[in-house]
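On to my pick:
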Amino acid sequence: MQRRAFLQGTAALAALHAFPGLARDVQSPPWALGFQGVSSDLPPLPMAVRGKIPEACTGTLYRNGPALYERAGQRYRHWFDPDGMIQAFRFGREGAVHAGRFVRTRKFRQEAAAGRFLFDGAGTRISGSLPPRNNDDFNTANINVQAFDGELLALWEAGSAYRVDPESLETLGTRSWREDLAGVPFSAHPRFDGRGDLWNIGSVSFGAEPLLVLYHIDAAGRLRKARTHRLDFAGYMHDFVLTGRYLVALNSSAVLGKGETFIDSMRWEPSRASQLLVFDKDSFDLLHTVEVPAAFVFHFGNGWDTRSGLEFTACQYPDARLATIGMARLARQQPGPYHDEPRLLRYRVDLHRGQAAVTDLGIDLEFPGFDRRRPFEPQALFGVSKGRNSPSGPASAVVRVNPSSGEVDRFDYGDGTLVEEPLPVPGPGAAASYLVHSYLDVERRRSGVSILRADALADGPVATAEMDRVVPLGFHGCFLTA
């Protein structure tokens, strides 16, 4: 089969081919520092601690994100493209230490041996690229890292999960849930229930027959159930919602079709209604398809059941320009605008009537997090937000919002500091005690981690750990207590 036919006919999110790499923009904004990338593993480096690290935060913050932007003079041109690196920020009685290690995917190992990029990316055409045999040939494992079954899972969204050792950060190989599921899309946003079971989706676009794969894996790593569902159209899906009774996927109005690149194949269709696909969590039967106005969402908050259906929150954009334009400008280190602000919306879905009421909660928010001990209850959300007076660019504020009351608490570091996904750290009580997040001080060219009280963000950090090292800005991670 010819290369183009293979990519267009057998891949969904995995059908990633693209544009020629060019030099970065000359007039780069200050935060371009976070998108320069690194070329090798980062050995352990002690961090300077200010304040006192709370005992509850003794442990490790793991993060994942695109890191290897260049090989042999070619540079990736979209934030989805570079190879993933697992960052470990370890906090103990002796202080704090950072280390980073690339995920040794099949793609990474082949390209390291060749000394150049061999496969195209989501938004980058590589000169002399090879045709992939399957999705894992160009799996970058660069979006998320989650602890599961005694290991870390480095996650992409179009192929297999990669196993990583939590101590050494060595790559242990792919995690196959079943032989016929090897290389099948497995999203970077698994959800966990109160027992520790893992639930996930995989979006597979086969041209005229797009599919959604549903997964249920128990806490011991055994596949309980996997099922495919045929979609009405190939809307881009990145995350989903889990409640006590339902699994909900948003078939968005960013529709994947044919194009010279994966990114170019994404068409925003504002006249097309998006679909909330509501599945029974136990059987994976499709119970309801609820149409909603055209929507584009990377990340959802948590969800919970109600008498008439369910509720959840979403960080929603007015269109898909962040994916098609903004993330390319960031990777190319170009000035903005990058995207419209993501608004935090509350969806109240009445399954009896087959309708959803959508409310704008009046705040821009991304990378939402919540206390995973109570995943299916209304609770506070944590995330990042642009500063009140900042220009268009990455976030500088950490935010706590109550979706029920609309009450907001925040701490803004100022335009010179870029903040990343805040993770709640459980305490002895019912609520999260602290938030832990990484940041980049672009003015001082230093990366670090801040710890804030979850119920008093406006007071600022209780402790920080900083180093004379810049690590690339990434996407998602997890925190494991010692």
Summary: Confidence is low (pLDDT under 50) at residues 1-26. Residues 9 and 207 are 6 Å apart (CA to CA). The first helix runs from residue 3 to 10. The helical segments are 3-10, 106-114, 321-331.
